[in-house]
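Reproducibility note. Readers wishing to regenerate the assembly model reported in the main text can use the exact inputs given here. Chain order matters: entities are listed in the order in which they were concatenated for prediction.
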Amino acid sequence: MISFNRYYNQFNILSLTLVVVSLILLSFKGLNFGIDFKGGTLIELRSNDSKISVTSLRDNLSQMNLGDISVKNFGNETDFLIKFENSKNKNVIQEIKSSFEDSFGNSFDFRRVENVGPKVSAELLKSGIIAISVALILMLIYIWIRFEWQFSLGAILALFHDVLVTLGLFSLFSLEINLSIIAAVLTIVGYSMNDTVVIFDRVRENLRKYSDIKIYELTNISINETLSRTLITSITTLLALISIFFFGGEVLKGFSLAMIFGVIFGTYSSIYIANTVLVRLKVSQKTLLKEDSIT
Amino acid sequence: MLYFSKLKIVFIIILSLFFTLIASSNLLNFNNKFLDNKINLGLDLQGGSYLLLEIDNTPVIEQRLQNFTITVRNHFKKKGIRIKNLKLENQKIIFSVDNRYKQKILDDFNDKESEINLYYPRFKSHQFEILEEKNFFVVNYSKQGIVELKTSSQDQALEIVRRRIDEIGTNEPNILKRGNDRILVELPGLDDPMRIKSLLGKTANLTFRFVTNDNEDSFGAEKLQFEDGSDEAIVSKRIIMSGDNLLDAQPRMDNQTNETIVSFTLDRVGAKRFGKATATGIGKQLAIVLDGKIISAPVIRDTIASGSGQISGGFTFQSATDLALLLRSGALPAPLNIIEERTVGPDLGKDSIRAGIIALIIGFILVILFILFKYKLFGLITNITLVINLIILLGILTLFEATLTLPGIAGIILTVGMAVDANVLIFERIKEELKNEKNNLLAFDSGYTKSRTAIIDANITTLLAAIILFFMGSGPIKGFSLTLGIGIFTTLFSVYFIARLLTVLYVSKNKNKEKLI
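Running the prediction on these inputs yields the following structure tokens for the assembly.
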């Protein structure tokens, strides 16, 4: 049996530090919002002329007075991703097409064009935030119905930890936040909860079974009993996600990366956050009995 | 938990075969109408254009209020009440009356049978609301009035947008209402929406009006620019006839001038008005105005009573074709703005499908090998279950002709990763039970029973996340939540029916074997 409980304090301090650092990053560095949430235009190009480079594209575009332009390679040398704010929301695609044709000849395939107006991006951001909040609240309510409040506090703290630290990592590495990241975050919420619930289910069962074991010991027993399941499920999920990350194409890279972070944090937090909350709140058999006698 | 009746077994097999058959119709072509359902590919996979249009209702509101001022004046004039200082300001009508009429005005506006202020009994609200301020009244649209106005202009706009897109003839466009002032247009297979965007960007409000050179036109006049920006002219506000009177419009080649023109045919009312105007206005210039710009202003040389005519204005064949198309399909009630556009080329779509399928296959193989390594024979059972699970998932998506997006494929791959969870929970529990329980059957039975709450709880949490995504997410994200959500049900089915059935068959034959799992 592995003594997870010996490191409860150390890992709580680590998590607290991670959360604080994430919050600092989020409030000072902020998130790198994509055009979904910031508005603007995105163009994915493929050229069939290897001489065309990021620099030559940027030089060409900078003459067009489009404001802040970002040009970078997307996946390989001949694919490019161009983003700009397009604050006037005018139709510049045609202009860009003809300007490129003048300078480089007919060597481009416009693979993807996205244009999100400021009103829509504000709405998408709002509905993304609402979706995540609603998810957290629903999870809280569900856990509250199924378990006692101490458990639901533990689960929610674990969830907040996972979401915050994942977003913190996105802020640290300036990874782009777009619609699919919101989907990833929500799936992380579901996954992390899933993991926590399985261990909690066992804690509750053991609480009923052993009246003489302290919660400090009891959580450790429960973590160990469910450990192989926790690991196997995390590994299979990670295998699926790694496969998406490496083979699923550029569009799904951000999504699968967020999910990979989320699964790792989710697994960690169900052991080291959710359970420590039970320990700190001194959950005992009485906690359950009180609840049982009420219902 | 370990007993299966014969009937149940038959049912499980039939259901699995049924979904296999349905799912296989994506690959094979059955000439059968029950089996021709196919999974739709989202725009990100098949390529195409997604446009979100917003109707700018401000001009409509202005126009309606303008008309309403006249209605108000005339209505009260008939009742012998003189409306004073009537004006339109910031989308509000402001006027005053003599003190003795004040109550009458209020009563008339707030009467449920009011002639000028429509009452919606369903919403317990009038079309307009009236406020009394010091010495004057302020009238503007009520909330419900605005809603009615927006809905009706959305209905009209939707119809016109549909007509314009149908005229261009793209395949299977999807045109839907969003909220009460937006229209969503999905155009599969279209990789350059430039022409559609320019066609939808025009209101196509066509009017024929006289050019007046003096400012004393009794209807008022306005200075308008020519389309090419070369010149301007003062045009009467009196509309002789509008685009509504057109029956047909076609691009043509004028044989005499070798110029591209748009010829049009008028309806009966239009022909009559056009005939009268051309008869009385010989020598005058008739301006043809489209969306506030003069296309051309030819001099009337002869009475035109035939009910047909032509517009010239230095068109190219393309611009004449587009103008004719716009005129045929009618004017939009209000201008449309494109507030969101997403276009994916067919090449990228194909690449995405290929990448998605490769990721699915590799993820699947990795998971299968890992589980096989971990659980041996029971791993095989889990893997068979996983395959059937995937087939049923595809079968359900096919049955409902769901739309598969790239994130949707990610949802399927994720389902593969997470679907083994339930089986793992059960098998791990059985292993634990076997430590204290020597009877294989009993251990398996309690393994299934005791892991049930954890499995249900764990799946409900994921389901909650999927449901929220489905209702709050947009476009591709919906596809992800759909596959994730359906995946939960197929997982539970395959774990509790198929995997359990296979397990039961194996265990009952090897009751007395030690170290079964």
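We highlight two features of this model. Chain A touches chain B through 69 residues (CB under 8 Å). The CA atoms of residues 101 and 169 of chain A lie 40 Å apart.
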